[in-house]
Amino acid sequence: MAKRGVKKKEFERLDDATVGRVVSLLEQDTPITKKAACETLNISYNTKRLANIIQEYKDRLEFNKRRYDANKGKPFSDLEIKELIIDYLCGESIAKMADTMYRSSHIIKRKIKELNLPERTKSPTYQNPDLIPDEMVSEDFNEKELVWSARYNSVAEVHKKRDNGTYVLWVFGKYNQFADQPWWELGKLEAVKKFNLQTERFVKTEKPNFAYRIE
After folding, report:
1. Which pTM was predicted?
2. Which candidate, 100, 107, 109, places its Cα nearest to that of 72?
3. Would you say 6 and 52 are in contact if contact means Cβ atoms under 8 Å apart?
4. Buried-exposed string 167-199: b where 16+ CB fall within 10 A, e elsewhere
5. What is the distance of C-alpha 195 from the center of its chain?
6. Sign of CA dihedral 191, 85, 118, 184
7. Distance CA 180, CA 206 (A)
8. How far is CA 19 from CA 16, 67, 108, in A?
9. First-to-last C-alpha distance (Å) of the chain
10. How many of the other CB atoms lie within 10 Å of CB of 35?
11. Where are the domains of the chain?
12. Is 7 exposed, middle or buried (0-12, 13-18, 19+ CB in 10 A)?
């Protein structure tokens, strides 16, 4: 894909949605003026720069189309699956993952289901976590095992099991803290184990990790 080096200023609206709308308006039967196009993008009136912005957008669409076409019906590689597991469990959106992997959102969702990964919803809270899917349910977890914490909606590492049956966890993601949870709020992550994904791949925060201070 050609790189035209269009640099974006903070106040300019050069996102794909806005540029795409401008392209549609310029290509309709009664097109808007180039001045109006520049105003919509919040850029200075410059027809050469406007043309470069539009061409870069069209080049990007064509490049993406070729990548999507090349991946259509093609099995996921192990590397793609690993990245999918990590990104999804770390909270990345399905739409962003689809764009990054040049596959449809439908295909991404289907692969997530095949891997028995937890369904993420927008509604869970600390007081009202999602139910653990049957495929992930277990009453026993091993020390250092990576599990899914429904209450925190995040990957966690098992540190030990208490006498009352709850588990002491180190919760990754934005929390980066210890927590106690019963087994019914935890889920097996067989895909993480199968692809030998290491703990550090799920540390997605700048908050200092103090887990090493507590035995």
Report:
1. 0.76
2. 107
3. yes
4. bbbbbbbebbbebebebebbbbbebbeeeebee
5. 19
6. positive
7. 23
8. 5, 21, 27
9. 52
10. 11
11. 16-71, 74-215
12. exposed
Tokens representing residue 123 in the block: 């509604």
- Side chain identity at residue 197, one-letter code: L
CA distance 67 to 63: 6
Per the document, the length of the chain is 215
Amino acid at 147: V
Round to whole Å and give the CA distance between 138 and 119: 17
Per-residue confidence in pLDDT tens, the chain, 215 aa: 444 567 788 899 999 999 999 999 999 999 999 999 999 999 999 999 999 999 999 999 999 999 999 999 999 999 999 999 999 999 899 999 999 999 999 999 999 999 999 987 766 677 778 888 899 999 999 999 999 999 988 999 999 999 988 999 999 978 789 999 999 999 999 999 999 998 888 875 544 554 444 43
Type of residue numbered 9:
K
Q: In what order do the strands lie in the sheet with 167-171?
A: 177-181, 167-171, 154-161, 146-149, 186-188
